[in-house]
Specification:
- The chain is an alpha+beta fold and 362 residues long.
- The chain folds into two domains: 12-177, Gcn5-related N-acetyltransferase (GNAT) (Aminopeptidase); 183-354, 3-Layer(aba) Sandwich (Aminopeptidase).
- Helices cover 29% and strands 30% of the residues.
- The protein has helices spanning 25-38, 50-58, 111-124, 141-149, 206-213, 216-222, 230-248, 292-306, 322-330, and strands at residues 15-19, 68-73, 76-85, 95-102, 131-137, 153-164, 167-177, 189-192, 196-200, 252-257, 262-269, 278-283, 312-317, 334-339, 348-354.
- The strands form three sheets. A seven-stranded mixed β-sheet has the order 1-2-3-4-5-7-6, sandwiched between helices.
- Helix 3 (111-124) links the parallel strand 4 (95-102) and strand 5.
Length: 362
């Protein structure tokens, strides 16, 4: 798998994900040949002609388990994601091997994640698919992070199984259940607390996010985000939390109880209008007033201290949100000033505190 470098999201808004067509084949071959010739992420050792790659292309279809999606920008293919047979023996038919390759010019701009997410959404709707598997030739830390972010779990490493460019390479295998409705199978864990598990969002969380953003309490305190459909929720995830993970390696995360029940979101955001990152949180109305928000917020601030090495953090809150103001006071934060964020009609309160927080007792 290619390495997705971290960087600004420069092209994603102009990219369309679609099924591959025959006219894409030459470009797909060009993209793949770069990784054959110049990297260890594939163990092919010689480049391919279009004719040699045609049988590979014809193994995919618009229905079923074996799919080939491309990222199209201005009519040109800039990358692809695929699912193909894991092994030839019939009993393996419910498992697929997945992969993604990008034009090196767009690596690190969110295209690979978007392609992979789209492929996994399709596989989730295919009743014949039970497991998705992926092999990552090491070292490739960015690909490892990508797979874990998308809900893949590492299941083992084959030592020195490939020899390329004068050295042996290990291959780590990742596995994901694409048939389970259990939301805990998706999203890399960020941290946990006594009662909560906090994970990164993924596209499978769209239905929950649609419910949360239209919760009366959310809309009263945080505004109407204009998310009305599942497609809107997926768009919000792509442009919000998922984009933030790629650019900053933090963002808003989903919050669940230890039994897997999704109850809200919490995390650390980086807004261009604020000097410091800020902590944010929102919970379904039926889970408010039970201490979950401050438990999750404390966990986010501890993460900001220990993992992000932040020395100061902010928070913004509406002057009418008395419950949230009380929470910020309990965290030891102080009201600094009023600010108006770009695109907003009214000002909000800006709170800040130094990190780490004083040790919490009880």
């Amino acid at each position: 798998m290619p390495n997705e470098r971290q960087g600004p999201n420069q092209v994603l808004a102009a990219v369309r994900i679609r099924p591959a067509v025959a006219d894409d084949l030459a470009r797909l071959v060009d993209v793949y040949n770069h990784y054959v010739a110049d990297t260890h992420v594939t163990f092919d050792t010689r480049t391919f002609s279009v004719a040699e790659r045609r049988a590979w292309f014809e193994a995919f279809a618009d229905q079923g388990a074996h799919r080939l999606l491309v990222a199209d920008k201005d009519g040109q293919c800039i990358g692809y994601a695929s699912s193909h047979a894991f092994r030839a023996k019939p009993a393996y038919a419910s498992s697929v091997e997945t992969t993604v390759y990008l034009d090196p010019k767009v690596v690190g701009q969110g295209v690979g994640s978007t392609l992979y997410e789209a492929l996994l959404q399709i596989l989730k709707s295919e009743p014949s698919v039970h497991r998705a598997l992926a092999g990552v030739a090491l070292p490739n830390p960015a690909s490892a992070r990508l797979h874990e972010r998308l809900g893949f779990q590492p299941v083992g490493t084959f030592r020195e199984v490939g020899f390329k460019f004068g050295r042996y390479h290990d291959v780590r295998w990742y596995q994901r259940d694409v048939s389970s409705p259990n939301p805990s199978m998706s999203g890399a864990k960020v941290y946990d607390t006594e009662r909560l598990v906090v994970r990164e969002f993924c596209l499978e969380d769209g239905e929950f996010l649609l419910r949360l953003l239209n919760d009366p309490g959310f809309r009263a305190n945080l505004g109407d985000k204009g998310v009305r459909t599942l497609d809107d929720a997926h768009d919000y995830l792509r442009k919000g939390p998922l984009a933030s993970y790629r650019e900053f390696e933090f963002g808003l995360w989903r919050v669940e109880l230890r039994d897997g029940t999704l109850i809200g979101m919490c995390g650390v955001l980086k807004r261009p209008a604020l000097q410091h990152p800020d902590v944010g949180y929102a919970f379904l109305s039926e889970y408010c007033g039970q201490g979950y928000a401050i438990e999750a917020a404390r966990g986010s601030l501890e993460f900001a201290t220990s993992k992000l090495n932040l020395g100061r953090i902010a928070a913004i809150v509406s002057p009418d949100n008395k419950r949230s103001i009380h929470l910020l006071q309990k965290l030891g934060m102080s009201h600094e000033t009023m600010v108006r964020l770009p695109g907003e009609d009214s000002s909000v309160m800006l709170w800040e505190t130094a990190l780490p927080l004083p040790r919490h007792e009880g």
